[in-house]
Amino acid sequence: MRHFEDFAVGQTFASGALTVDAAMIRDFARQFDPQPFHLDEAAAADSFFGTLVASGWHTASLTMRLLVETLPIAGGVVGAGVQLAWPKPLAAGETIRLAIEVAETRASKSKPHLGLVKIRVTTSDSTGPVQTMTADLVAPRRAA
Predict the structure, then answer these.
(1) Count: domains in the chain
(2) DSSP string of 116-135?
(3) Are 53 and 90 in contact (CB under 8 A)?
(4) What is the DSSP string of 52-91?
(5) Separation CA 112–CA 107 (nearest Å)
(6) At 18, which helix (H) or strand (E)?
(7) Helical packing angle, 22-32 and 56-70, nearest 10°
(8) Which residue segment(s) compose the domain that 99 sits in?
(9) For a disulfide at 28, which of 7, 21, 58, 70, Cβ 3.0-4.6 Å?
(10) With contact defined as beta carbons under 8 Å apart, do 47 and 37 qualify?
(11) CB-hemisphere CA count at 13 Å for 37?
């Protein structure tokens, strides 16, 4: 488990791979984003996307899974702010991976037992980024 002191600006991490299939896309969409281009291949073919694609929120959830697996932080991966962009959709059958870079670290002034770690995360499939994210994570400091 990592603590604030285990992070340094410029440090990078790479996740394992996760393949997304059509059933996963439909299951997530039924529960959280029930739009035709996430639920039905025929409807998706006639949509802006032209094929069945994952919800951006599904992509974010998959990113979170890989982030937790790749970057275990003592006390959990706790966010304190995030910026997300989806440069292109994630299609069924694609395999995603994360590239994570530590962009900034700063000790909390109001809570000396904590620090903030700003990371940049690029979630990519075989053709390039499907999500970019900048997130501030809360990380406990090691006891003195």
Answers:
(1) 1
(2) EEEEEEEEEETTEEEEEEEE
(3) yes
(4) -B--HHHHHHHHHHHHHHHS-BTT--EEEEEEEE-SSPPB
(5) 7
(6) strand 18-19
(7) 110
(8) 4-140
(9) 58
(10) yes
(11) 15
Whole-number Å distance between alpha carbons of 77 and 57: 18
Q: Decide: pTM greater than 0.85.
A: yes
What are residue 131's DSSP bridge partners? 123
Model pLDDT for residues 120-130, shown as the tens digit of each residue: 999 999 999 99
- CATH code: domain of residue 47: 3.10.129.10
Tell me what pLDDT residue 31 has: 98
- Per-residue pLDDT of 5-57, as tens digits, reads 999 999 999 999 999 999 999 999 999 999 999 999 999 999 999 999 999 99
Q: Is 45 left (phi over 0), alpha (psi -120 to 50) or beta?
A: alpha
Residue 61 identity = S
Q: Give the residue carrying structure tokens 């940049």.
A: 120
